[in-house]
Amino acid sequence: MTERLAKIKDHLTAEFSGNVHQTRPDDIVVVSAHRSAIAKGFKGSFKELNTDYLLLQFLKEFFDELPSEISDHKELIGEVTCGNVLNFGAGATEHRSACLAAGIPYTTPFVAVNRQCSSGLTAVNDIANKIKVGQIDIGLALGVESMSKNYAKLNPLGSISEEMKIDPRAKKCMIPMGFTNENVAHMFSITRDEQDEFAANSYQKAEYASSHGLFEDEILPITLQDGTKILKDEGPRKNVTAQNLSALKPAFIKDKGTTTAGNSSQISDGVAGVLLARRSTADNLNLPIIGRYVAFQAVGVPPEIMGVGPAYAIPRVLKDVSLSVKDIDIFEINEAFAAQALYCINKLGIDVKKVNPRGGAIALGHPLGCTGARQVATILRELKSGQVGVVSMCIGTGMGAAAVFIKE
Amino acid sequence: MLAYHMSGYSGYGVQYSPYFDNRLAVVSGSNFGLVGNGKLFVLDIDMHGKIHESNSFLTQDCLFDVAWNELHENQVLVAQGDGTLRLFDTKLKQYPIAIFKEHQKEVFSCNWNLLSKQTFVSSSWDGTVKIWSPTRQQSLVTFLPHTLENTKNVDITTNVPLSNQKQHEGISRNKNCIYQAQFSPHDPNLVMCCSGNSYTTLFDLRQPAHTGNQQSFLAHSGLEVLTCDFNKYRPYTVATGGVDNTIRMWDLRMVGPNSSPAICVNEISGGHELAVRKVSWSPHHSNVLLSTSYDMTCCVWQDLSADGVKNTGRTNSIDPKQGCRFRFAQHTEFVYGADWSLWGQPGFIASTGWDGNVFIWNGLSLK
């Protein structure tokens, strides 16, 4: 009786039947996911490079890594979506041209997306959705950012109308990110010590991963104009401890602030890409399958505490796939700031050992539009076959995004 | 509208006799078919439009489907919850004349071969489809349709505590349950079935019964497929209905090599608010089909994607102008079974459901 009743209940609720491990021909799979090394902003190896150059160098290497079924038939790529935050118009023109220079035929369309820090992940979602509804069979999601070239030019308040500046809701979008993080730290009583501890931990993990070659598989070399190849992340540093971070002065609120350069994400340059396909297409072309895209959700949160985004986006996306936080093996939660990352981890009751096991943006850097795609490349190397991972980040102006991936 | 109420029983299936224009067989279960007896009703419609019971058979477990013997006017087959199929003679009382016991779990559907008339097909919760001859106790062949790779049964007790009894703790969801199996009305060797794993599978009886010979396609994007039916006029057209509340129509010629996602030729989404329980193509029109649903309604649809001769490329919606010919809303509970009358003026339909009512109505007379 119970079984019959359970069946009828299933028919009525029509829930996702809770089995993300089931493979289907219409799955959206990750064929390849890579990133460049992440270079320090303003003084790093990429400081002279435009994003289109970065993208071109990356794509050349990216295609070299792919089997000839796709690298010799780039026309099979049905769409390219590129996330970017700081370029004029999110780089719609120069990044399309970089794709053409990399040998993608002009017949493959291109779209630039900008959802702030989630742009790279939003690009992945955009491609996945297009595959899901049958618009395309194979698509390339990219994220690229040169904060060196464009961050200083950015003045978010430059073209804001008076009406927005006086509207109590609208003006919250203009709060600088550091101050939103001070709000989070203050509202939820996250101490400077906790933040520094978390940041130091990020440095230690990243330094370990970098020096032990854990990033070798995901990083593709970027060839500079002089021929030098850049293969190593520039963010991680040796011997960073909570103690030496505690000596730094607050960056935003001079006396009482807790956000410092040491417990915030670094300004960086980088590029990452994820090639997605429908499983049936990948199988027909004999393409490798490294993982599976399962779901994505973006949510809105109050702009003045935008850092809480993952705390709302993660449960939302997990609900869609009938999973709970404890079912997830690894979380890649972008460390925009230690306080907001800590808040999200604590609020969701995540085991901190599962979060960013190879370090996060505090140590590695946060090239805004690249980050989401970078995290996908990273998490698919951290997960073991069959494990489930979540990629998430907070988003300026008050949002959060999260996506679920399974390693195959 | 004509009506009959089966007191204490919930209807699961109904079929018009292929021999008598005023005779129906209805199968039902007590306690909503969840536990307890089942009952087969043989109903006759008299000259005054009254429906009365001409015979009935009580069974040990609930009955889920019914099929008249195409070769014998008095024989009717039922699919029972205890894994058996039983053949009854309507001239006799009380006992079946044959019992076919092989399925391990509930038998959810049975269907008589309309062309060869010598065989019938059954499908079960145990994940198998079996072909039988009424003259043999053992099945002729057993098919195991496309099963899920990596099937991981989900423990429902962590989800909803439906029972606190110990023997129910191990209950798991079996997504390979086969809800319906049907013979093609065009080819006596072709069988189609649909299952909880969202696949619809086709078998040819002339081929050995291993999975390599099957043609499967994902029909309802991962959600359970509860029903399927062959179009009676267009040999390649089939319809499926499922837990995603949609009805989809497929051209079997467009179902590619195994497992690649097929593109449906027409989809009626939003037509029902809850899962679609049964679809049945009209015996009189190539582009009319009937659906029943947990949303307590039956609908008659005109498939706009084909005008009977060629494809039009049009799609359906719930708008009457866009294909929804009739919505029957007299049932007060889930509607499970429905069948088109082969007799008289086209459009008469018998339907039954959890409310215990059998209604006869015309789905094509209005509008």
Secondary structure topology:
The complex is a heterodimer of chains A (408) and B (367).
Chain A: H1 2-13, E1 28-36, E2 39-40, H2 51-65, H3 68-71, E3 79-83, H4 92-101, E4 110-113, H5 119-132, E5 138-146, H6 147-150, H7 162-166, H8 177-187, H9 192-211, E6 219-220, E7 222-223, E8 229-230, H10 242-245, E9 268-278, H11 279-284, E10 291-300, H12 309-320, E11 330-333, H13 338-348, H14 361-364, H15 371-382, E12 388-395, E13 399-407
Parallel strand pairs in A: 1-6, 3-4, 3-5, 11-12
Antiparallel strand pairs in A: 1-9, 1-10, 2-9, 5-9, 7-8, 10-13, 12-13
Helix pairs in contact in A: 2-4, 5-15, 12-13
Chain B: E1 2-5, E2 10-16, E3 23-29, E4 38-45, E5 51-59, E6 63-68, E7 75-80, E8 84-89, E9 98-101, E10 107-112, E11 120-124, E12 129-132, E13 141-143, E14 178-183, E15 190-195, E16 199-204, E17 215-218, E18 225-230, E19 237-242, E20 247-251, E21 266-268, E22 276-281, E23 288-293, E24 298-302, E25 324-328, E26 335-340, E27 348-353, E28 357-362
Antiparallel strand pairs in B: 1-28, 2-3, 3-4, 4-5, 6-7, 7-8, 8-9, 10-11, 11-12, 12-13, 14-15, 15-16, 16-17, 18-19, 19-20, 20-21, 22-23, 23-24, 24-25, 26-27, 27-28
Q: What key phrases describe this protein's structure?
A:
A: 408 residues, alpha/beta, two-stranded antiparallel ribbon, globular, B: 367 residues, mainly beta, Methylamine Dehydrogenase, Chain H, 4-stranded antiparallel β-sheet, Thiolase_acyl_enz_int_AS (chain A), acetyl-CoA C-acyltransferase (chain A)
Question: How would you describe this structure to a colleague?
Answer:
The complex is a heterodimer of chains A (408) and B (367). Chain A is of the alpha/beta class and 408 residues long. Chain A has a single domain (24-148, 167-397), classed as Peroxisomal Thiolase, Chain A, domain 1 (3-Layer(aba) Sandwich), CATH 3.40.47. Chain A has helices spanning 2-13, 51-65, 68-71, 92-101, 119-132, 147-150, 162-166, 177-187, 192-211, 242-245, 279-284, 309-320, 338-348, 361-364, 371-382; strands at residues 28-36, 39-40, 79-83, 110-113, 138-146, 219-220, 222-223, 229-230, 268-278, 291-300, 330-333, 388-395, 399-407. In chain A, strands 1, 2, 3, 4, 5, 6, 9, 10, 11, 12 and 13 form an eleven-stranded mixed β-sheet that branches. A two-stranded antiparallel ribbon of chain A has the order 7-8. The model of chain A has no long low-confidence stretch (mean pLDDT 93). Chain B has no helices and 28 strands. Chain B has a domain at 201-295 and 297-330: 7 Propeller (Methylamine Dehydrogenase, Chain H). Chain B has a four-stranded antiparallel β-sheet with strand order 1-28-27-26, with no helix packed on it. A four-stranded antiparallel β-sheet of chain B has the order 2-3-4-5, with no helix packed on it. A four-stranded antiparallel β-sheet of chain B has the order 6-7-8-9, with no helix packed on it. Helix content of chain B is 0%, strand content 43%. Chain B is mostly beta strands and 367 residues long. The chains are: A alpha/beta (408), B mainly beta (367). The interface between A and B is medium-sized, with 26 and 40 residues.
